[in-house]
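ok, trying the design again with the full structure, not the truncated one.
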């Protein structure tokens, strides 16, 4: 629960002094944090500040600066996913043949301490001016292979509804653009910004999706859920992306609570991102093998609706790939070996649609050959009770 002894801030906290006065960091920490503040922007809107119990809780960690941000490790880079090299004109990133990113501004409602664009975003990062925005839109008009435009930034929901409407109308008028995606943290960070005017601005004949960035169940407050609902009632599908973060969502319990809270808000978890190696973010890093174990712990425990794709953006701009966990262990001819959510191996006869569990082995890991198929089976062997989970409809 939030610390009720601390007054709720009435305005966005932007300076170290603000953080001290709000009781989120100590006076003694101020000089070291001023060094961090010279490098990276800070903003914590009241709705988000209210959720913080202390600087190192899962909410505080995400937004309160820390001296560790000045420690840059060897693998960290200022542009971890290679946006700059893939930018043909300011405001556009073109990584995949049929999609492009449009970044109309670099301002965010809050500044995540792990942000992959932390070297670029901030209140001084500004907004594309009219001429620059038109050049970016012209680039999209001139590229008919682009079917999907992803509004990113910064946070596009920091635009005024008027400017958002202008962009949506311009994209809608491009015959080749059929899908618009909006990546935003606003619904959880500053939910009151999702006004009826903003939702009306999103009304389009294109297939428009809002992708909310949320990392902890506590971010799904009643106000956040209401802001999401304002979009859903206008038939705007809302899905979610999250970043796997040490100290925030790196336990099965925290991850499960987040995924369940999203589904309860009618939001499909879309991506769980492996943290990008942005400068000064190593305190948040969870190794991929640990991320796979975390997700494996949830397999079979949470509904498939809640299951995100765990992805890595290959550093250097080589694209995003799913990174597991994998359940397919071997495939040869018509025989495939898989593991079930409990980790037990099974040999699947494709075409025959038979799935038989492996009989506990004699002290070594089974190989594909070790796992019996139906033809290996003693015909007199009783099949035993049917597993109720395997009858009826696929859940
Ligand atoms: S809202 Fe997005 S772009 Fe802005 S700081 Fe957070 S992760 Fe970065």
């Amino acid at each position: 629960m939030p610390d009720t002894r601390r007054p709720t801030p009435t305005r966005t906290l932007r300076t170290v002094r603000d953080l001290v006065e709000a009781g989120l960091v100590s006076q003694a920490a101020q000089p070291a944090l001023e060094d961090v503040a010279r490098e990276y922007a800070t903003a914590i809107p009241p709705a988000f500040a209210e959720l913080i119990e202390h600087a190192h809780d899962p909410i505080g960690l995400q937004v309160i600066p820390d001296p560790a941000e000045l420690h840059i490790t060897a693998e960290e880079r200022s542009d971890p996913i290679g946006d700059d090299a893939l930018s043909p004109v300011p405001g556009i990133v073109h990584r995949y043949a049929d999609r492009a990113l449009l970044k109309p501004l670099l301002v965010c409602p809050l500044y995540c301490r792990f942000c992959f664009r932390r070297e670029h975003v901030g209140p001084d990062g500004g907004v594309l001016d009219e001429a620059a925005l038109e050049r970016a839109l012209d680039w999209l008009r001139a590229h008919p292979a682009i079917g999907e435009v992803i509004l990113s930034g910064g946070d596009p929901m920091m635009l005024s509804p008027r400017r958002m409407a202008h962009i949506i109308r311009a994209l809608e008028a491009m015959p080749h653009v059929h899908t618009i995606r909006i990546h935003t943290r606003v619904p959880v960070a500053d939910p009151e910004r999702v006004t009826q005017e903003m939702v009306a601005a999103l009304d389009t004949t294109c297939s428009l999706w809002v992708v909310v960035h949320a990392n902890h169940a506590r971010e799904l407050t009643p106000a956040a859920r209401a802001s999401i609902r304002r979009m859903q009632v206008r038939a705007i599908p809302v899905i979610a992306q999250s970043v796997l973060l040490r100290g925030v969502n790196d336990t099965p319990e925290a991850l499960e609570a987040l995924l369940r809270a999203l589904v309860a808000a009618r939001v499909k978890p879309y991506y769980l991102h492996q943290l990008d190696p942005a400068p000064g973010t190593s305190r948040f890093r969870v190794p991929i093998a640990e991320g796979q174990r975390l997700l494996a712990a949830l397999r079979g425990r949470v509904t498939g609706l809640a299951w995100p794709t765990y992805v890595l953006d290959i550093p250097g701009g080589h694209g995003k790939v799913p990174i597991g966990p994998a359940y397919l262990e071997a495939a040869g001819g018509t025989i495939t070996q898989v593991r079930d959510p409990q980790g037990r191996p099974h040999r699947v006869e494709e075409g025959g649609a038979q799935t038989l569990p492996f009989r506990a082995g004699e002290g070594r890991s089974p190989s594909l050959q070790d796992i019996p198929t139906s033809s290996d089976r003693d015909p007199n062997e009783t099949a035993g009770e049917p597993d109720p989970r395997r009858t009826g409809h696929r859940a």
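Keeping the full-length input from now on. The pocket of iron/sulfur cluster is lined by residues 108, 111-112, 115, 117, 121, 153-155, 185, 213 (CB under 6 Å).
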